[in-house]
Write a structure and sequence with these properties.
This protein has helices spanning 39-69, 75-96, 102-123, 129-152, 161-179, 186-219, and strands spanning 2-3, 10-11, 26-27. With 221 residues, it is mainly alpha-helical. It folds into three domains: 1-36, no CATH class; 38-99; 121-221, no CATH class. A hairpin with a 6-residue loop joins strand 1 and strand 2.
Length: 221
Amino acid sequence: MAECKKCGVHITDDTDRCPFCRCVLEDDGIKGVNVYPDVENKVKVWRHIRRIVLFLSICAMGGMFIALYMGADIFNWTVVVGLILLYVNLAIYMTITERIGYMFKTLFLTLTIVLILIGIDYFTGNNRWSYDYILPTALMFLDFSCVLLMLINRRNWQSYISLQLFNIFWSVVLMILLQLDIIRQPVMVIIPVAASFIIFIGTVIFGGRRATDELKRRFFI
C-alpha cells in the first residue's frame, strides 16, 4: 500500500501519484490491507434477510388463509397479522434502499405504522386507542426526528422545513379531531402540537435568510 507523505493518506490502488496533491507516492510497507468498509457484503446480508422474512411472511399468511378456509374464526387476527407482516417487510426494504432520503423514510414508515395501528385498533374492538395515543405519539416522534435530522445534517438543515410544515398540518388535524371528540386525550395532543409550532417558529427566527429562502423556494411563501 502506498502513502502520500504530504497529505498523510494511504492509497490502496495501483496509482503512483496522490489524487489530492499529485505528489509521488511512497511504499509504506503495509501489504494487503483494505481500509474501505465492506458495504456490498452488508447490503447482500440485508437483502438475504429480506427474502427470508418475505418467504416466512407468505408462509404465515398462507397458513392463516388455510385455517380460514377450514372454518376457523380468525378473520380479524388474520388481518392484524397481515398488517404487521406488511409493515415489517416495508421497514426492512426502506432500511436497505439507498435511493430514498432519511426524511422520506421516516415520514413514510411513520404514516404506515399509524395506518396499520388504526387498522389493528378497528379489527380488535375499535376502542379508539389508536386515535387517543398513536396519532399524537406519531406527531411527537416526527418532531423529535426533525430536530435530530437537522442536527445531523447541519449543512443542509433548511431542507427539513418541509417536514416541519407537514407536522404543522398534522397538528391542525389533531386539533380538529380533538374538537370533534374523536380524540379524547387533550394533553396527548397539546404537547406535540405545541412542540411542532415551537420548532417551526424557532427555525424561521434563528434560521434567518436561509429559512425564508427555503420557504420561498419550496412553497412560494
